[in-house]
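Model: You mentioned two targets. I'll fold them one after the other.
Researcher: Yes, keep them separate.
Model: Target one:
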Amino acid sequence: MSRDYESLSKEALVEILRRRDAQAHYGLIWEREEIPAEKALNRDFVGLELDSELSCGDGPQGNLIIEGDNYDALRLLTSTMAGQFQLIYIDPPYNTGRRDFVYNDRYFDATNRFRHSTWLEFIYQRLILARDLLADDGVIFISIDDNELFNLGLLMNQVFGENSFVANCIWQKRYSRENNSAIGNVHEYLLVYSPNPDAFKLRRGMLPVDERTRQNYRNPNNDPRGPWRLVPMNGPGLRPNQQYPVTTPSGKVLYPPEGRHWSVLEPEFERLRAAGRVSFGARGDSAPGLIRYLDEVSGLVPWTWWAHDEVGHTDEARKEVQSLFGTQTAFETPKPLRLMRRVLDIGAPEKDALVLDFFAGSGTLGHAVLEMNTADGGNRRFVLVSNRESTEEDPDKNLCRDVCAGRVRRAIEGYNGKDGGAVAPLGGSFAYARAVRVPMHRLEHQLTNDLVWSHALLMAGHPLAPYEGPVAKSVCDEQMLLYCANTKPATMKKLGEALQEHRGPAAVFTWAPAVVTALAEELDRPLTVVAVPEDLRRTFRQGKARVVDNDNAVEEAA
């Protein structure tokens, strides 16, 4: 909201300038006050309404697809699953002006003078929530093109901090020349950030050894250990304790090349030499090289150049969509499965990793998770969030139900491809749920048993399941979770029986915490009691939505 500076006194203006100078800092600034408020921003409580008919596979359904605005979904997830995700990948709208950015129920006008600021505010509101979902050694990958690359980079520095930058990967999205521009555009980017890059480096996955790498290993001397190659034993920079002389078998004395050092300390060099792991060439007078065997290479360190023949291209992605849905128009800008596999290889190597995509689009990341689990026997889980993307022009569109969930369902159950051949099912399951808003001041009257139960399950880390009252129960990893919907005698009896049957850790969500606490004391049963709706209201993350109060002052939630 703009100020009426003309009505202010000199002293008031000077004070405003002092405050502004004191707050000045290097970074990205956009026109937050001038752009239209986003309709999706709100401070309501958000719950999940499970749709069993649109869910897929047998329970427990560890994977989750959420239909709704991702601002709502992120506030729900940060309230229930903060710090739990090893990997977040998103493919947000690129703000190209070609009907790719739905804002306030219509496609954003590319001629709007606040085009970049509107996009930045839209992304910012979601990134500040996503930041709290990552584990300390987690990582976020964001796909983007030239339209907003530099703005997004500055925004990421502002949200995560400059020291959180890991890499800017370049994806070669095309394999044919593009001749419409002065310089053909054949690539996009993936910005990579981590709350703790050093911790992420320790857990980041290696890439599988490819055939091109294998061809560099040969066995000209029939070494019983198999193929090998020479690795130079020097590195850049001067290290005084690694500048020692090396005497070759021919008697020649060598030092590291100018400006470089030997890659190991002298005792380690002599150990490797004695073990027959150092080569000085056929004549015994070349610079030393380390003999590295192919069986010692567990994987390749990722680098920032992602060629199309390694991770796929846009044409491949469209053909995958056509194979799944019979048409390439089901989703306009899909990413190829191999690209998502590369992201997962690096960011979710653990077989039990939890991953999130809150711009899920056609559901490629979920599909890739299922493929990866099938390949290595893993149990990685995904949470996908997709809006309906309905607009004033197309009010009945439901991208989440028809495309995102549709694709993942086909991958799980199997389908007939474009050529008529059967594609084998990958197996797995997912729960399908809709994000439902409830005004904070109406929780006592509008918070349904279904919403309470789904919220309880998420908070406890249990798979979503239908509410079956009046005492709903879930047991996962020896922890029992209960929701007591009322305090009728029959209900309390059933609750007491459940508490006595299970002697492990237990938590009860209840509208009457005093009554449940008294029952626990009577049974001499340790218990965690969660008060509904008070504790839900207290712990719910409301986000940073800008709200204008009655005095026209802009207030931002913490």
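Model: Target two:
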Amino acid sequence: MVRVEFLPSGRTAVVPSGTTILQAAIAAGLRVESACGGRGTCGKCKVKLVGNSQVPPAPAETKLLSPDQLDSGWALACLRVVTEDTVVEIDEQRDVLDRKVGMAGLLNLETIAPSVKKYHVVLPQPSVEDQTPDWERLTAALPDPRLRFNRTVVSNLPGILRSGNFVVTAVVDGDELVAVEPGNTQDRSFGLAIDIGTTTVVAYLTDLVTGKVVARGAVTNPQNVFGADVIARITYASGRPTKLQQLQEKVVSGINSVIAGLCREAQVSTKEIYQAVVVGNTTMSHLFLGIDPTNLAPAPFVPAFGQMVEVQAQELGLEMVRSGRVVVLPNVAGYVGSDTVGVMLAAAADRLPGVSLMVDIGTNGEIVLAGKGRILTCSTAAGPAFEGAEIRCGMRAAEGAIEGVRIHDDVELEVIGGKRPVGICGSGLIDAIAEMLRTGIVVPTGRLAGPDAGDDLPPLVRRRLRKTEQGSEFVLAWAEDSATGEDIVLTQKDIRELQLAKGAIKAGTHVLLQDLGVEVKDIDRVLLAGAFGNYIKKESAVAIGLLPEVPLDTIVSIGNAAGDGARLALLSAAERARAAMLARKAEHVELSGREEFQNEFVNALSFTK
């Protein structure tokens, strides 16, 4: 066994010799960026070894790291193994999670009517003449005495009844008694709305009496150490029960850490949280429940379940009332999950007039087209470009990420946190290429101009164009201005990656329009869901052809609509039933076998509106 110490946190892990640094970091509870899931292809998991390592670099490291970097002690955590006690420096990115949470207030509900109800009852005390068992004594005083027997509740019922002198509050969810509390606690009732994203997990602690969010928070999905996208995580989990369990425990631990923070902030006990409503893409729902997602990866992309699922919190290890219900909203298809159902619910997809296009842009682009009494859905394999993966200097929307670009006499950058840039995130990528198109640095075919082109470009801009052994690239930030000490660039390959991603979304949109029998000009509104949609500049998205060419004032960002849908389903049993209806009503359009999608995709690759 060898000891690995991680700086600057000081955390350590004792692991078998031959373990990778990435595995050791996971064992130490640290997060190392691993977009490719440890396959050694993305080069994002760079760490620095302190002292001289006796282990030579793997062949892939020599391709992704320069000789100077290797000589300076840099290594790829997923490939470099430890055979002796080792000290490693990790630069953990500080995610700007408040961007993912969004604003949360009282939803537009006519009536707050959650399925959780509290009943304050005063029970007759037992006597020689009245030897009614405690369970029957309590349930007889409730509106529905035929509640299902709950062993967990009954195990503590005798003590609770007597400590409260038989004056108690019963907590009922549907046909189940989930808790009994001494005294009158009717004014204290809370629930959780949870949106499990591939990248970020968001939770809203909600007062079930008033409907208000009392605290909200987020955490980077801890599963990201196993890969940035769902395919990497499916591959990791496939056919290996222990690894599936590891993924399930990782995401639950992340959620529990958020719950703990929310409860501290709002001064709420976890024992006052009686229900959670959860949304996520289909893979995240499977992994959260500990259900094998293997068959989601290959065609025909068959999930293990699609319906709404209800389990007790204690089955999953979620920190709330043990018997409290955890409700996972239904999926539509293998790559259109309950998060999209949440979007449809929050946006009232079945009630909007005219034709509405809803787009949630991420690693997968979920698209909903509602109109003419129908709701069509599809998912496009947009790839990880919008999350910063597979982009040379790409990163998530964390501190130091370039999120805006303007090109005039020179390049002007907007950086999250106002600090020196580290890399570029998805919104910055779209913005940069829109500007490069406008100025002629990139032509509509996607070709990046060479250093000998662009005579009409300002000199400071022209000098940023250069050719290397890897091909043409454009320098966004020079080494002396970046936090990494290296040039931050956009390469020809990066531009091609974005073309593939935006082409898939544009083609998917056009197929849905064809199936509904409408055209772009018929679209009354475009609703952008998710954190990415909240920060994307719609002018840039239209300029590169990511979004259809509609009047800009019809394009509206609706924030974390998936989380808002979860909140609606938490606060209203009727809205939860409507979520199930929307999932059933949605007509899923599978693009993988559609010839017209392939044709549209080819046409959508160029940067035209």
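Researcher: Noted. Anything on target two?
Model: The longest helix spans residues 241-266.
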